[in-house]
């Protein structure tokens, strides 16, 4: 009997062995860990080169135009100037799903939604992407670009709704009555104020009362200035500020906390003024000294008013009107270097 045909058929129909499959899988895995990242990086470089080329053309034309004009053109509001200054579509970035598109929009305040960010006062233009970035993969980020905000941007903030825009100092720190020094009358020991008497501060207390202490009262010295406050005035409540902010900026907040009769606990939460707030810090501090807490907070897209809330959580005293001393609450914006 001739077994040649059956042997050849067996060879043709035989599938991969387990070892061969493992070898193939290993090769595919090796390629995915070496070639794919390199390809992604090269594609990202291509995006950077494309946008940088466009930026170069626009900036050159703006520079030439400045020699013949007394002010820089209004690229944000005058669409007819787009072609004159070679403002064409560039990659957009969606913070929701990380997808790219094309847009030629020009904005005066960076919002990370693609196109171009233009500072007319200085005649400067940048890519309007998160942190100036051209890829959403932080591992393969290859160009950080320009910062978010300048001191001039902060000084030009306007009121939003019922929220009055605060001034800022030369370091980007909000002038927000941080140590409760702006008062209608002098406090010698302690005193209760209506919330409308203390600039920039509001309370959730049903009686609207805020309790302020003088430096040295009951042996407690203020961290900054002459005054500080007790978060628990007549009841457990929250003290908060609403601040006009620029979406995409990084805020650095700092606050000093101290227990009154023992260990007290308070929390600091941040978010939009009309929605839920995110817990940033739970502060548990004894009464033997002040402790300063600080963190950074990135203002999300569309949030032009940001609320900072100091919330009483627990007190060493059984009294609702005793506990949680607060001083020197500051908020600063990280500026361009």
UniProtKB/TrEMBL annotation:
Domain DUF642: 174-331
Keyword list, A-Z: Membrane, Transmembrane, Transmembrane helix
Gene3D superfamilies: Galactose-binding domain-like, Glycoprotein, Type 4 Pilin
Domain of life: Bacteria
Pfam family, one: DUF642
Keyword Transmembrane: yes
SUPFAM superfamilies the record matches: Pili subunits (SSF54523)
Membrane-spanning ranges: 15-36
Protein name per the record: DUF642 domain-containing protein
Organism, as annotated: Psychrilyobacter piezotolerans
């Amino acid at each position: 009997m001739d077994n040649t045909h059956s042997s050849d058929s067996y060879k043709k129909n035989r599938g991969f062995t387990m070892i061969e499959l493992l070898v193939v899988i290993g090769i595919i895995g090796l390629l995915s860990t070496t070639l794919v990242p390199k390809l992604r990086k090269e594609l990202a470089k291509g995006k950077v080169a494309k946008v940088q080329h466009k930026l170069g053309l626009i900036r050159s034309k703006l520079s030439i135009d400045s020699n013949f004009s007394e002010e820089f053109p209004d690229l944000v509001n005058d669409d007819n100037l787009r072609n004159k200054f070679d403002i064409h579509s560039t990659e957009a970035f969606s913070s929701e799903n990380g997808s790219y598109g094309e847009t030629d929009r020009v904005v005066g305040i960076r919002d990370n939604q693609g196109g171009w960010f233009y500072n007319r006062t200085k005649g400067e233009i940048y890519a309007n992407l998160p942190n100036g970035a051209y890829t959403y993969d932080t591992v393969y980020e290859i160009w950080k670009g320009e910062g978010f905000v300048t001191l001039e941007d902060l000084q030009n903030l306007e009121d939003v709704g019922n929220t009055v825009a605060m001034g800022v100092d030369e370091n980007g720190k909000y002038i927000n009555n941080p140590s409760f020094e702006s008062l209608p009358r002098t406090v010698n020991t302690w005193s209760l104020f209506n919330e409308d008497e203390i600039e920039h501060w509001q309370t959730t207390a049903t009686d609207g009362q805020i309790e302020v202490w003088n430096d040295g009262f009951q042996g407690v010295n203020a961290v900054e200035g002459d005054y500080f406050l007790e978060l628990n005035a007549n009841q457990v409540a929250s003290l908060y500020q609403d601040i006009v902010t620029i979406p995409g900026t990084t805020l650095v907040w700092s606050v000093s906390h101290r227990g009154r009769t023992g260990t007290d606990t308070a929390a600091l939460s941040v978010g939009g003024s009309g929605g839920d707030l995110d817990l940033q810090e739970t502060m548990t501090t004894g009464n033997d000294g002040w402790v300063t807490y600080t963190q950074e907070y990135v203002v999300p897209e569309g949030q032009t008013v940001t609320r900072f809330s100091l919330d009483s959580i627990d007190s060493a005293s059984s009294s609702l009107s005793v506990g949680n001393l607060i001083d020197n609450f500051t908020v600063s914006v990280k500026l361009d270097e």
